[in-house]
Write a structure and sequence with these properties.
about 500 residues; alpha/beta; Beta-lactamase; about 25% helix
Length: about 500
């Protein structure tokens, strides 16, 4: 998950603090390589024993994939907040249940007959099944490209005019549109969009903010995607060139009005703001109606969405026109694992929940809870200590998620031998290369070597994955740091990275 933007203001620190940072801070630079296991253990323990960690909690486990020997552990059974290391569990679950070739199908139905002239005498219905892939990150900057597969299905079926409504049916997912124990700030800050079986652009819309013509005039707001139903209240001001830019959004919960607050200097660059779109199925329907019109297909009725606990609009008389397929699941998992995308991960958990839902399950059982039940069954079968895993949701946005380094390493060991091992490993960020590790550990022995999942909340930092030592031994590790209050200019990741370098540089063997 992306770090919360809680350091909003520049703070000037005393010179003494800056000198301390320059002389005491540990940076992710090459260290003296340990040549024996005892020397490696001493290096790690010396790092953890530093006074700045006196109020923090560490949970660490490092194991050789080849020998199965534990090289180091420190409170490996301690329940810790994993943040986005949670995604390791959801990604592994999806690949295990469905396989990397699996594609999520989104069917399109006609509730009426299609005449020879192309008139559909009834409603056009898109039945969402949780495909998270319709976003500009995957398809590029052209918003309308998202709808091309739907246009193809509809026009290939001969539809040229719809006399009824266009309905986006998102009733496949049961439960609230947020993951359990998310906070209000997660939605307000655009950290994650609402969960829905029909999504669009990760359920986030963008607003371009440009300086006005002269200081004192409002900034210019340009919504970049149509059909959201949102109203933007412009509370911005263009200021002089010497004044710093500052923009933010305020979105009262449940409302359609988003307040754009702040200022831009007259000679400043445009800025792009994200805003969560509530009731995303409504947005999907409205945008699809516009996309159809752009291709000469008119819809006479309304465009709207339905979501649980509303009743599905599909009945026995509806005729399937075709379906739109997601990319293979290995690509879906890579798409959320590399950048640590939250919504798409929680959608996969909900998908697993619905496709494994027991026939006698009560209708009020949420897709999320059904997915977590499937996760527990998977982990039990995999030999992962399920009693050490307590998740409320699947992406790691929840501050209530807990697991141990011991359990995470056991999962990584299991997935290294799984039939989808390549897809799982390839989904992980590569140090110094891509994803949420692209700026870390550059120009070190870890760059291009470490494949691992990051995790960040305000008081939780984690990194778990695989590394190859200087002698070619493959290690699996899980390092979690909680309740750590870093000094100015540093993060918890700055404290984890030196440990990773110790492993990448290790010139001994686990059998030493």
């Amino acid at each position: 998950m992306n770090a919360k933007k809680f350091n909003r203001y520049l703070i000037i620190y005393p010179l003494a603090v800056m000198v301390w940072l320059a002389t005491h801070a540990v940076c992710a630079t090459e260290t003296n390589a340990a040549t024996s296991l005892s020397e490696l253990t001493h290096q790690i323990e010396a790092h953890l024993a530093q006074p700045r960690f006196s109020g923090a909690l560490w949970g660490i486990k490092i194991v050789s994939l080849g020998t199965g020997k534990t090289l180091f552990e420190h409170h490996a059974d301690r329940l810790m907040s994993p943040a986005s290391n949670t995604k390791l569990y959801t990604g592994a679950l999806g690949l295990d249940k469905f396989g990397g070739d699996y594609q999520i199908a989104t069917p399109v139905y006609a509730a009426g007959k299609i005449s020879h002239s192309g008139r559909l005498a009834g409603d056009l219905i898109v039945m969402g099944r949780g495909d998270p892939s319709w976003n500009s990150r995957r398809l590029g900057t052209n918003f309308w490209t998202i709808f091309d597969p739907f246009i193809a299905v509809i026009t290939n079926a001969g539809v040229r005019r719809v006399s009824g409504d266009l309905i986006a049916d998102a009733t496949f997912f049961h439960g609230q549109p947020t993951g359990s124990s998310w906070t209000i700030d997660d939605l307000r800050d655009g950290e994650v969009g609402e969960i829905s079986a029909l999504t669009l652009n990760d359920n986030l819309t963008q607003i371009r903010v440009s300086p006005g013509a002269t200081p004192g005039s409002p900034c210019i707001l340009t919504p970049l995607q149509p059909g959201t139903g949102l109203i933007f209240s412009n509370q911005t001001l263009t200021v002089g060139s010497h004044v710093p830019a500052h923009l933010e959004t305020f979105h009262p919960l449940g409302g359609k009005i988003i307040f754009i607050l702040g200022q831009l200097p007259a000679d400043g660059a445009d800025e792009i703001l994200d805003a969560v779109v509530p009731q995303p199925a409504d947005w999907f329907a409205a945008a699809l109606k516009i996309a159809l019109a752009r291709h000469g297909v008119s819809v006479s009725g309304r465009a709207y969405g339905v979501a649980w606990p509303q009743t599905s609009t599909i009945n026995s008389s509806a005729v399937k026109l075709g379906e739109v397929l997601s990319p293979p699941l290995r690509e879906v998992v890579r798409s959320f694992m590399k950048p640590s995308q939250n919504l798409e991960t929680d959608m996969l958990l909900a998908d697993v929940g619905e496709l494994t839902r027991a026939t006698n399950a009560p209708p009020w059982l949420s897709s999320e809870d059904a997915g977590l039940a499937a996760l527990r069954a998977f982990l039990t079968a995999a030999g992962v200590p399920v009693d050490e895993i307590h998740f409320d949701e699947g992406s790691g946005v929840s501050r209530n998620n807990l697991t141990t380094a011991n359990a995470t390493v056991a999962l990584l060991q299991f997935m290294s031998k799984h039939r989808e091992a390549a897809a799982f490993t390839d989904s992980l960020p590569i140090a110094g290369v891509d994803g949420s590790l692209r700026h870390r550990l550059k120009n070190t022995a870890a760059a291009g070597n470490v494949r691992a999942k990051t995790g960040t909340l305000r008081w939780a930092h984690a990194l778990s994955g695989y590394v190859t030592t200087a002698t070619g031994e493959h290690l699996v590790f899980s390092i979690m740091l909680n309740r750590y209050n870093p000094l100015p200019g540093r993060t918890g990741h700055d404290e984890i990275d030196p440990l990773i370098l110790m492993l990448a540089n290790f010139a001994g063997r686990s059998t030493d």
